[in-house]
């Protein structure tokens, strides 16, 4: 394994350990955390078994606490750090018609103030990234002024960006639908790129793999944003139909391979790369902690296969116009089973060769199932 693969670190989302579901039902699960501390303990467990997940992303207000400094200390005691702060502005009645884009200045200011409060949280936790995903948008043609909303968005983002510290970044996530169904205010990478370009170099794009129309060539977007030095972070997950938030690599391992190939090609795993790798998933029917373990292993596995591509042979075939050879070089790497070498890598790093079975045998799940009784289970609250 080369240094690029040793650089792979995947941030876990705190919300993945809480209950989640669909608009039809949120199922409760034994052992589900009742507080952010228990989510962090679970995330740290994923890291302990895989060596791949040293940080945890928080969502504000879901993970609000009185003392963020001591929460950061708590995380460190468990062997992880706090990472990205997500500024959820999608569950407050005031934001029904928008947050940073709202026509009412008072509501806009409330949303801006919430982001400034998130920056204060980052100052306490030592987090680098403020991740903004907006549910803003409209359901019907004519409902809102598309252009006016863009202007207000630009102004609000600029106010927030002015407060981002020198070592901090603003990452703007795009999504082409949901909860708004006619138009969202940051629907695509181009819009996110335009806004972050206007803001400055500490503003970058967040690419959530579940936020594209079916058939979109995501690796193209990865290549382009890396080229433009604007790929700030990934929210990894996979989808069949909508924003399914399923285990990354589960629906389409080949797509994950192609994405990781472009990441490597564009220097996204080089030393000092600005690209943050995160999961943005939830586990509605499968066990949550093993779901996260499987996810980070999937990313590592496809990155490892992507690193096997014989780039020299690929270039020769591409430049010779040998379509079939070029494709075969790529597929050779994709079809290579790297699990034995990853098991060896883990053993060399003092990790269990098979994290899934090691976790199952560890008794951690039985312990939390027995201990976490009473209280209110954390949930995304939908
Ligand atoms: C929105 O669909 C999203 O991908 C954003 O990243 C949110 O922060 C996250 O999911 C949780 O709702
Ligand atoms: Mn996301």
Automatic annotation (TrEMBL):
UniProt keyword NAD, yes or no: no
SUPFAM superfamilies: Xylose isomerase-like
Superkingdom of the organism of origin: Bacteria
EC number, as in UniProt: 5.3.1.14
Record organism: Mycolicibacterium komossense
Descriptive protein name: L-rhamnose isomerase
Molecular functions per Gene Ontology: L-rhamnose isomerase activity
The entry's keywords: Cytoplasm, Isomerase, Manganese, Metal-binding, Rhamnose metabolism
Top-level class of the enzyme under EC nomenclature: isomerase
């Amino acid at each position: 394994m080369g240094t690029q693969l040793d650089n792979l670190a995947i941030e876990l989302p705190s919300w993945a350990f809480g209950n989640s579901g669909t608009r039809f039902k949120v199922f409760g699960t034994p052992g589900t955390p009742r507080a952010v501390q228990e989510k962090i303990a679970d995330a740290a467990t994923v890291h302990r078994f895989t060596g791949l997940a040293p940080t945890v992303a928080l969502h504000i207000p879901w993970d609000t606490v009185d003392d963020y400094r001591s929460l950061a200390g708590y995380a460190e005691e468990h062997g992880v750090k706090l990472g990205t702060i997500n500024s959820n502005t999608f569950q407050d009645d005031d934001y029904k018609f928008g947050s940073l884009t709202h026509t009412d200045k008072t509501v806009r200011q409330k949303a801006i103030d919430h982001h400034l409060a998130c920056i204060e949280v980052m100052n306490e936790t030592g987090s680098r990234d403020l991740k903004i995903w907006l549910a803003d948008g409209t359901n019907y043609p004519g409902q809102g002024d598309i252009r006016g909303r863009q202007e207000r968005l630009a102004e609000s983002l600029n106010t927030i960006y002015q407060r981002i510290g020198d070592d901090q970044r603003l990452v703007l996530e795009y999504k082409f639908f949901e909860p708004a169904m006619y138009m969202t205010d940051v629907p695509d990478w181009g819009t996110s790129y335009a806004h972050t370009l206007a803001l400055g170099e500490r503003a970058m794009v967040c690419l959530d793999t579940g936020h594209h129309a079916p058939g979109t060539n995501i690796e193209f977007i990865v290549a382009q944003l890396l080229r433009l030095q604007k790929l700030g972070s990934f929210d990894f997950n996979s989808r069949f139909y909508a924003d399914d938030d399923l285990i990354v690599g589960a629906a389409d391992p080949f797509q994950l391979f192609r994405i990781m190939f472009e990441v490597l090609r564009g220097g996204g795993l080089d030393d000092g790369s600005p690209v943050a790798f995160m999961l943005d998933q939830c586990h509605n029917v499968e066990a949550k902690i093993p779901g996260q373990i499987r996810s980070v292993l999937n990313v590592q596995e496809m990155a490892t296969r992507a690193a096997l591509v014989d780039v020299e042979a690929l270039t020769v075939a591409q430049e010779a116009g040998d379509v079939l050879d070029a494709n075969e070089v790529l597929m050779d790497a994709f079809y290579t089973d790297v699990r034995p070498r990853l098991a060896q890598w883990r053993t060399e790093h003092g990790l269990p060769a098979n994290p899934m079975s090691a976790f199952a045998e560890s008794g951690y799940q039985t312990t939390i199932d027995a201990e976490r009784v009473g209280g209110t289970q954390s949930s995304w609250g939908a």
